[in-house]
Amino acid sequence: MVGSGNIAWHLIRAFSRKGIQVLQILAHNEKTARSLSKAFSVPYIFDPAQLIKKADLYLVAVQDDHIREVALGLHLNNNF
Fold first, then answer.
1. What pLDDT was estimated at residue 75?
2. What is the CATH number of domain 6-73?
3. Which of 3, 5, 39, 69 is most deeply buried (CB count within 10 A of its CB)?
4. What is the CA radius of gyration of the chain?
């Protein structure tokens, strides 16, 4: 999960209820990242270089005007 705000909270909660594992939270806000991590037992990071690169899905749950910048900063490659 990229982001640690309200949308990220609700997505992680919904996934948890369905048994879908969230591997990691990438955030810039330590307070909300820590809160999410504690509530759902998901580790958090601040550095995109530490992002798990083999995940099946990356959800970008950030403010609309930051989506492009954040997504490009993930440095993920399409390896299909």
1. 85
2. 3.40.50.720
3. 3
4. 12
Distance CA 51, CA 13 (A): 21
Task: List per-block mean pLDDT (blocks of 10 residues) for the chain, which spans 80 residues.
Answer: 96 97 96 96 95 91 94 77
Q: 76: which 2 tokens?
A: 């993920």
Ordered alpha helix ranges (H), the chain: 6-17, 30-40, 67-73
How far apart, in Å, do the first and last CA atoms of the chain sit? Answer: 21
3-state secondary structure of 19: coil
Domain limits of the chain? 6-73
Q: pTM score, two decimals?
A: 0.89
